[in-house]
Amino acid sequence: MKIHKIINIFSGSLLLVIINLASIGFCNDAQNVRAAYERYIKSYAEFKDAAARGLDEQRLRICTSRYLKDLEAYRKLISGGLKPENSYEDVKSPAQPEDYSGAQVAEPENRLDIQSIISQLRSAETPAQKDSAIARLEEALASAEGAEAGEARLALGEAYMARKEYAKAAAVFDILIKSQVASGAGIQKKASALKKKCELNDAYSKAYAAMIHAENKYDGIAWTNPFAKLAAKLACAKASAEYNFARARLAASSLFETASGGSDNDGPVINSGCAPLITGAFFQFSGGHNDEKDYPVEYWKKEIAAMKKIGMDTAIIQFNQSDGTDLSPATERFLTAADALEMDVFVGTMLDESTMWYVGAKFNPLWLEKESKTVAEYTSRLVKKFKGHKSFVGVYIPYEDNTLSLPGALGDFYAAIVKAAKTEKPELLSMISPFTCIRPGRAKSLPGEVLKKYYKTMLSRAKIDICAWQDGVGGTTDQLKKIDEDLGAIASACNEIGITAWANAEVFHRTTPLNEEFGAEGTDFQTMKAQIDSEYKYVSKIICFDFNHYFSPNIESESAKKLYNDYLWYYQNRQRAK
Fold this sequence. Notes:
Oligomer: single chain
Low-confidence stretches: 1-27, 81-112, 254-271
Shape: elongated
Strand order of the largest sheet: 1-2-5-7-8-9-10-13
Mean pLDDT: 79
Distance between the termini: 111 Å
């Protein structure tokens, strides 16, 4: 009796163990079925997405193959008699496109991982995130095959370009180009274009580095070694020529914009912009327009009224003293007229160009320091003289920078003058108006990224409030093509350091060749409109140079009168259209 009881107990226990083991197996089977089902649904969704996006045939075959493979695995699991929970087998398999139902394409196991990594790489926001995604993509690429390897290499090459590792990027694109099996014609074509862009960028970067090295070497040689200094200067000229050639090749290519994000400049940084209108103008008193008999207060009221009629609210007097000639009586009369008509006025300080400013003086830090003291002292007296005029809102420093100087020393030169003005009247604004043509009348300037770096350095030291870029179009209309690059770079630099960017449109055109004495007349409205349309999106205000010689309806100049009347029509029609 006891033996039978023991056997019954043992048998019951054994049955429980068997049932438990079976249930564990059943649970595992159910989990496997669920996982297979989820893989099948996911691959089907990817197949539908690929078909909807119209991917190339090879990629679509891969998606189809994976979908069929996952569907077959799911069917095998449920065909063994196990009824999965949630009625998985009730899910109908989607109809197969006839073109792909028999496709047998080898499918790499890490496809989804690579796609996920590429997505993470392209959405990364920080350098650390990008570096991590690049490292993961490099690792995954080692086992990638077929079209997926091509897509991974394309993404990796673009990432290298974004990090300016052009040699590495070119090597990746070279593999892509040669591996026809690993990429479709579209990917190969893009890889070829990007490889060419890499080569141009690499040459450009090396030429720029060589130019900077040559300039630093030149700066490091004392003038007590004239022959070494001359040899270094020639080396600078050669390096600069090679740099300009590399830059020209890069700019001429049709590949400048790529998915990697572009160049250092990355396209100009555009301000909120202003209306496409000229709302201020320079006045020149030198060479006439300064005697009281012909140009009394009433004359300047007439000029200011003409300005206000076309929406102008700001006047800039170019300078108050030049090479010893005192123009302050004319400035006084103009300010009196401006007070009466509520026009804001910037008064130019002194200007001494007898020291060969453009060809040597501004390269000499000692001279700049000495001259800044002279101009600062004069500016203090100037502000004291005119600060009672309510129209007097700012000072203009007429020493023009053409980006061929020492940015730090020149910035300090401006800063000393600004300090002198604000010491006498703290609320005064300060302005300069640089140009970027290396030589007036020639549409040649430094590259955008060099301009941006130069102006960030110079302006951050200068402590001015407004930088009004001269567009140089008066010297040559070829300069219209340079506005986006030059003004874009300067506006970007101003934005980053908190300085207001204006544009100074030249509303004249030369009537004499560059090698002869300067002669000019008012420009035509079509040219002016092209200037405005190119410049307004970068700046908060457009001014012009100048009103009383090239734009005024009150002088004996048919070109000036015509320009004024054409612009008046444009302005009035714009106002009516609002």
